Amino acid sequence: MHRGKQSTNYRRTCRHGFHREEALAEQFLRYVRGIQLPPKVAEWARDILKESLEEETDFHETAVERLKQDLARIKLDMNQAYRDRLDGRISEEFWGECSAQWEAERQRITERLARHEKADSAYLDLGVRLVDVAGRAAELYEKYGLLERRGFLASVLQNIRLKDGILTAEYRPAFQVLAQMAAEPTAPPNVRGGGSRSSKLTVWGG
């Protein structure tokens, strides 16, 4: 009799846990659906990000070329001033002042050049991948196993809380932007009508 009661309690506990997991999964799914982009919006978002990637690349290439030209100019000025110093056309004091200024400028330009050359557009590449994921977020979530779901949710949500069976959470910043985009049945008017990269991203980015 005692063992039968234990068995009943065990089955009841298992059923309760199962229903609790089901309820939580459904609540998490609502958040996942919140970043699901309508096909047309996902297409526009990919176009904007790809255009941004091209503009960012052009900007860095132009900036790097200009900085290299500035370095070449400084080198020519320093070489000419050095020859004038050897020929006695300028004083040692004047040479010292000018060379110190040129060296400081050269150092600043070299640092800026290094930043530009190290800069990449990985975050924009990531943005394109995020949009691709957001286009089928619910499909992926429902297809994932338990461990994959946990990893997926951890990358999408933060500050997750459960109180009295009610789940609350916040989207991580990148996914908050996607949630705002997902709430739009179509792209905002000034995105559809063109405009600069920054104005397009501002409309959706808040």
Give your account of this protein's structure.
There is one protein chain. The protein has 206 residues and is mainly alpha-helical. 78% of the residues lie in helices and 6% in strands. It is built from 9 helices and 2 strands, in the order H-H-H-H-H-H-E-E-H-H-H. A two-stranded antiparallel ribbon has the order 1-2. The radius of gyration is 30 Å and the shape is elongated.
Task: Name a few traits of the molecule.
disordered C terminus; 206 residues; two-stranded antiparallel sheet; mainly alpha; 9 helices
> What portion of the residues fall into strands of 2 or more residues?
5-15%
Query: Helicity, in percent?
Result: over 70%
Strand order of the largest sheet: 1-2
- Summarize the biggest pleated sheet: 2 strands, antiparallel
Shape: elongated
Q: Total helix count?
A: 9
Distance from first to last alpha carbon: 64 Å
Number of strands: 2
What is the CA-based Rg, rounded?
Answer: 30 Å
Order of helices and strands: HHHHHHEEHHH
Query: Which structural class should the secondary elements be placed in?
Result: mainly alpha
- Write down the overall mean pLDDT: 76
Oligomer: single chain
Low-confidence stretches: 5-19, 190-206
